[in-house]
Amino acid sequence: MTEPTTFEEFKSSLAERDLDGIDSEHTCSTLALVKSFNASGPHMNRWWVMTPVNWSCPCCKRTKAEIVRLNKNNYLTCQLHEHHDHMKDVVKGLFEKYSIQKDHVVADELSEKFAIKAAFSLSAYDNTVICFDCNKADAEAKKIIKAHKYFSFSPREIAEFVKPTPNQEHEIDPLLAQQVWERAKPIFEMRMEFAERFAKIAAENQDWYQPSERTAKQIERLAKWHFERYGLHQFDRYEPERLLYNTVPFKGAHSSWRLKDNPIVKKKPSNNELAHLVATRGKYWNRYEGEWFCPCCFRDKYDCVRPSKKNSWIFEVKKASLFATEEMNFVSNPDPMCVDCVDMALNFGREVLELSGKRSMIQFPSSVITLIELREIVIARPHSQHKFKNEVIDSIIPEIVQRVVKFCDSLP
After folding, report:
1. H or E element: which one contains 369?
2. Residue 206 CB coordination number (10 Å)
3. At what angle do helices 174-203 and 109-122 cross, to 10 degrees?
4. How far is CA 13 from each of CA 3, 21, 22, 235, 402, rounded to the nearest angstrom?
5. pTM of the model
6. What is the percent of the chain with per-residue pLDDT over 70, rounded to a whole number?
């Protein structure tokens, strides 16, 4: 199939395929839905287009094929909505109310910006794309239970009281909706109290917001546009700026990473410290079973917990491509390892690639070493960063450098 050269050709090509990551009224799956419902056509909005064909609603869990239904005009309703918390409207309204009540208005443009920024900290959830039935169910449930007019159920709360059916409007369980509102009401009332306080501070021009002439985000956005303009994204998609400067101008010898004397941490995390870690930064802890252990250093989950520069305790598990001897493969993906073993593999790989002069030819530095070789060089300690067997490293590096050189020289 030849690449389309005009938009009309592109649109026509969609009749036989779907798009990856986005949707359209012209795609194969949409046309099939229209045909199956004998509809006159699709009635689609922008959020439907900006979500994948296989998207499902975070509230009712229905897929797009289960969300669509015929409207009164015999068109297939393909509608998603951005569900949002109303705290921005609350704070902005209160700010205006208190400002105009004063004998002399002292608030200014910055005061209003402060009020709007403060409102984001009071929001109960992020703006979330949900199906039109769930968005409608939020409004209907509030009427049924007589909730505060500025309250809105979060996507997770909506999921508790809707009774979804494919291609039909939701039923609402009034008892469950009432229970959710009673549970959320005390926190909502506290948020409203904060909204009053922030609005009064802004109306009296006692806020502390000081805008920058140009924010860091604005500078970054403009720089990214220039990186793309000069074609740097084709060389480094994620951090093109690193191509334009030496990130470590004062680096020592290639072996400096393994000569550092990483201290041993004698303190162990207490039960409450571990509980706090799991509750606030527990992504990796919760992802792996209690029996998990690092396949390289063999430390269990608890022993892998250690302090970092930013946090009292961390637990991180990551993947790194390692060398597979059997297939002579430089991009194998073994089981996830603790972050200290991954860092060890990356640093070892960088040293090897610098010595071999083949840095630009190997995509993942860690892929020059096998898991067995990693195990031979590590000295693992509980709750501490690794130490390394430098005499072993010195003995195996020449062989691994030769392996890399031989592989790269064999490439066409």
Report:
1. none
2. 12
3. 150
4. 9, 17, 15, 30, 50
5. 0.67
6. 95
